[in-house]
Design a protein that fits this description.
The chain has a three-stranded antiparallel sheet. With about 100 residues, it is mainly alpha-helical.
């Protein structure tokens, strides 16, 4: 499959500008149809309502999604599946999840 790499982008845009053609009625009709059908929000997004006080807090295992209860030095170990992860990675991952779920906080 042909790809355009970042270093080729300027050259590709220039070649597109050189090869410009007039838009036909079909092109204009298609563009208008696409604009008319555009949706700002996806109808397939189903996000449940939740708030901070209702959510169980803790670090969740990457592999099995259970809550992690034990730490060993700078590592955490999931008691459900045995997966181990560095404490730093687990905390950073949890912070990113928190930011995604609670942007206002």
């Amino acid at each position: 499959m042909p790809c355009i790499y970042p270093s080729q982008l300027n050259r590709y845009v220039k070649s597109l500008e050189k090869n410009r053609t007039q838009a036909k009625k079909q092109h204009t009709a298609l563009a208008e149809k696409l604009i008319a059908l555009h949706m700002d929000e996806s109808p397939y997004q189903r996000i449940p309502s939740y708030n901070y006080d209702e959510v169980k807090k803790g670090i969740i295992c990457v592999k099995c999604d259970s809550f992690i209860a034990s730490t060993e030095r700078l590592m955490i170990k999931c008691e459900a599946c045995g997966y181990t992860e560095s404490l730093d990675e687990a905390v950073l991952r949890s912070v990113e999840e928190f930011k995604l779920l609670f942007r206002e906080r």
